[in-house]
Design a protein that fits this description.
The protein has helices spanning 2-24, 34-37, 74-83, 106-143, 149-182, and strands at residues 40-43, 46-49, 54-60, 63-68, 90-92, 97-100. By secondary structure, it is an alpha+beta fold. The strands form two sheets. A four-stranded antiparallel beta sheet has the order 3-4-6-5, covered by helices on one side. A two-stranded antiparallel sheet has the order 1-2. The model has no long low-confidence stretch (mean pLDDT 89).
Length: 184
């Protein structure tokens, strides 16, 4: 039974962590290096994430500076940013790329809130699926007499408490991200 709880906890933790990572890629009104890290750049014929060919920094609240390690990659990085769905305009000065992050429109903010709510709901569903798998595993163990009915019930109660705790974490992450998006 302990094994089932540990596996369940691990899967739920990973789900919440993945949601946090996914939220980092959603653009808010503030500058964030995370929204650029995953952009794929063509570098010597290979597609690589931007954070593997450049340093991405945020010197001001609405400014991102991207400094490539190899100056030859500057134009490719600029193209990749323009092709991305971030709707930003990179300024290339021959050494670094500066990107001013414009404030989001009200319409775009509402759209992004919907997107983040959808991401959170997918995470909640994933957590509930993990709970279902754990409960099925406990029922199998009970059926094969590996654990008693009381142990199975107690295990299911503990897994339900775990589920509630991780769903609350998802809701807290969503609330924090919504505030960030709606902040003017």
């Amino acid at each position: 039974m302990e094994q089932v709880k540990q596996t369940t906890e691990s899967k739920m933790k990973k789900t919440v962590h993945a949601l946090g990572e996914e939220f980092n890629t959603v653009r808010t009104g503030r500058a964030s290096s995370a929204i650029f890290e995953k952009i794929q750049v063509e570098y010597y014929g290979e597609m690589v994430p931007m954070n593997q060919v450049a340093t991405i920094s945020v010197p001001e609240a609405r400014l991102v500076v991207i400094q490539p390690w190899d100056k030859a990659a500057l134009a490719d990085i600029e193209k990749a940013i323009q092709k991305s769905e971030l709707s930003v305009n990179p300024n290339n000065d021959g050494k670094v790329i500066r990107i001013n992050i414009p404030p989001l429109t009200e319409e775009r903010r509402k759209e992004l809130v919907k997107v983040t709510k959808n991401m959170a709901e997918q995470s909640r569903v994933a957590i509930r699926n993990v709970r279902r798998e754990a409960n099925e595993e406990l029922k199998k163990k009970q059926k094969s007499s590996a654990i008693s009915e009381d142990e199975s019930k107690r295990g299911m109660d503990e897994i339900q408490k775990m589920t509630d705790r991780y769903i609350k974490e998802v809701n807290d992450l969503l609330e924090k991200k919504e505030k960030e998006i709606l902040e003017v």
